[in-house]
Amino acid sequence: MKKRITFFFLLSVMAVSASAQHHNGRFYRLFVPPTFYHSVANKHLSLNSFDENYAAMDEVDHALMSIYLKRPDLLVNSENQLRAAGSIRNDVEVPHTQDVELAEQVSPVPDDTPDVPPEEGVMIKKPNFWEFKGDYYLQFLQNYISSNWHKGGESNYSMLGSLTLEANYNNKQKVKWDNKLEMKLGFQTSKSDTVHKFKTNNDLLRLTSKLGLQAHKKWYYTLQVLAYTQFARGLKSNDEFTYSDFFSPFDLNISLGMDYTVETKNKRLKGTVNLSPISYNFRYVSRLGLSTRYGLDEDHHAKHDLGSSLTADLEWALAEQITWKTRLYGFTSYKRALVEWENTLELKVSKFITTNIYVYPRFDDSGARDSDMGYWQFMEFCSLGFSYKF
Questions:
Q1: Euclidean distance between CA atoms 166 and 169, whole angstroms
Q2: Among residues 314, 316, 324, 309, which one has the least CA distance to residue 357?
């Protein structure tokens, strides 16, 4: 069937080529989708349907009629549908064109990557695994009491300065190295002290260094070095005796253990906890007169102890303006024990003004026992002043 239809179309084309001079506008029917035309059916039903002058047209109509009768499924349109759609519009004189503006030429995007000379090869930027930070504050405390105050007492002035510097290395793989240097020095004056114009009320010089090798996630094998002493002489009111001095005492603790990184409370509680089952402690006292006061044998400058130690250094942001810093240190040689628990509650008044509440209980049974406090010692102060972090 398809071969016959193709044959009819070929005959029609040949007829069109042979009698193109008799063109009457119906050849387009060969090149549009098959359509049912009324004139084709009427012509074949008419008695005089053939005309020699229009042989090519008759062949076209004959081919179309064959399609109508044998392959009606190929018909797409009908003459009624074409009439309903309307004829070609003749009222459009100017063709419609879309007014499109050409986009401006975009300048080439500059390449921020520096040009590397071929002889130097590819430039690789080395990552910086170091982090440096610190903070300092300068606090003041003033207390005035008149000479006739009904409860007695004494006016005094005090000042405290603190500086903390940190240099931490972490290659984000296996190795980290944390270093912290803490310096505190405070002075106070009182009218009743006729021997000293001023004396220290807080004195600390401490270096903490930890080298860690990652064992599992937040656990590290750690070698910790802790060294601390003070800057100036330690004095008491109306007393010329020196209770402490630079390198009197000086403590050096070297420990081997495990370090755990704390990060919880949505990262508001951060810090480290170090557990060292093997810990060596070296104590040196420069002033021989203070040897027995700090647990050394008489007329000896140094003492060696082997034991265990614990160090916990945490910082907790309780609120946007309130931060609690705590440090717990303990060492035992299984003959003596030392425990220090430093707590600082920082209340932020403004960007550069803070109030600090400092509480420091301490236990040390290497010295003489006090009749009231035993081996416990205690220090506390509250101050207001300037602070800055960098």
A1: 10
A2: 324
